[in-house]
Design a protein that fits this description.
GO molecular function: oxidoreductase activity, acting on CH-OH group of donors
Distance between the termini: 24 Å
Number of strands: 7
Helix content: 25-40%
Mean pLDDT: 89
Biased composition (Basic residues): 1-11
Radius of gyration: 18 Å
Number of domains: 1
CATH architecture: 3-Layer(aba) Sandwich
Largest sheet: 7 strands, parallel
Shape: globular
CATH topology: Rossmann fold
Order of helices and strands: EHEHEHEHEHHEHHHE
Strand content: 5-15%
Structural class: alpha/beta
Keywords: Oxidoreductase
Strand order of the largest sheet: 3-2-1-4-5-6-7
Region (Disordered): 1-38
Biased composition (Basic and acidic residues): 19-33
Low-confidence stretches: none
Length: 287
């Protein structure tokens, strides 16, 4: 942060309608790391919710580079989803895209069933779909907004995991996306931060529940990452300075978060369960 607490302008002001389109963002988020894959997920099948753009897109492409087949569940960002599918296919891996509102339990079950119909199993489940609204006054958070936020951000994780679990073999992995806000709170994203706190407890509890089945459950808690969720939530000036208040003074790119998911998904993390990796630009989190 600059002297006097003024946030840096890192990009031009911009806004979008929710849920946001990656192809309309300026600059476009960085998806790829340059290094080639090394086969760490060879012959695995990954289902990624919210995989059309942002962190989910970067995870999908990185997993594909490492040899995984990919199923992407998303809401209605069809162009972004097709772009992501193309990126996965460019690696030589198979990919399907599944549109549906995951705040509805039936759509969560459908996403899993379509993945199983195509690939036969799910080795890696990444629960990543999310949305938020900025509300500076706590009293302005309506019951409808609260329920919608929890249904999208938390209930979908629960429902997708329940549906997927019978199809996850021994050695399988579940990775849940939380947030730095789960650990230090957010005065203007109270309902969102609450869902992310629930995801932390869900992850830790589920890891203990599934450890004897030899299924590992972990999570990633990103800080400020440049994704469509940001451009579709905050006003133009806040978007322009987004991320400037962390020690690194910038937002992270999706490509900088995806390797944390890869570590948790592959055999390198064989002795890790019930844990979170904090990719947040230097903010110290004790949790």
């Amino acid at each position: 942060m600059q002297k006097g607490g003024k946030k840096k302008t890192l990009r031009k002001p911009q806004t979008q309608a929710r849920p946001g389109k990656e192809h309309k963002m300026q600059p476009r988020p960085e998806v790829h790391n340059e290094y080639p894959g090394s086969g760490r997920l060879k012959d695995k099948v990954a289902l990624i919710t919210g995989g059309d753009s942002g962190i989910g897109r970067a995870v999908a492409v990185l997993f594909a580079k490492e040899g995984a087949s990919i199923a992407i569940a998303y809401l209605n960002e069809h162009r972004d989803a097709r772009e992501t599918m193309g990126m996965v296919q460019e690696t030589g891996q198979d990919c399907i895209i599944i549109s549906g509102d995951l705040s509805k339990e039936a759509n969560c079950k459908s996403a899993v069933s379509k993945t199983i119909k195509k690939f036969g199993r799910i080795d890696i489940l990444v629960n990543n779909a999310a949305l938020h609204w900025e509300e500076k006054n706590f009293e302005d958070i309506t019951s409808d907004q609260l329920v919608t936020t929890f249904a999208n951000n938390f209930f979908s994780y629960f429902w997708v995991t329940q549906a997927a679990l019978p199809h996850i073999p021994e050695g399988g992995v579940i990775i849940n996306t939380s947030s730095v806000t789960a650990y230090r709170g957010s005065p203007s994203l109270i309902d969102y931060a609450s869902t992310k706190g629930a995801i932390v407890s869900f992850t830790r509890s589920l890891s203990a529940n599934l450890v004897k089945k030899k299924i590992r459950v972990n999570g990633v808690a990103p800080g400020p990452i440049w994704t469509p969720l940001i451009a579709s939530t905050f006003d133009g000036d806040k978007v322009a300075s987004f991320g400037s208040d962390v020690p690194m003074e910038r937002a992270g790119e999706p490509s900088e978060v995806a390797p944390a998911y890869l570590f948790l998904a592959c055999g390198d993390a064989s002795y890790v369960t019930g844990q979170f990796i904090h990719v947040n630009g230097g903010e110290i989190i004790n949790g």
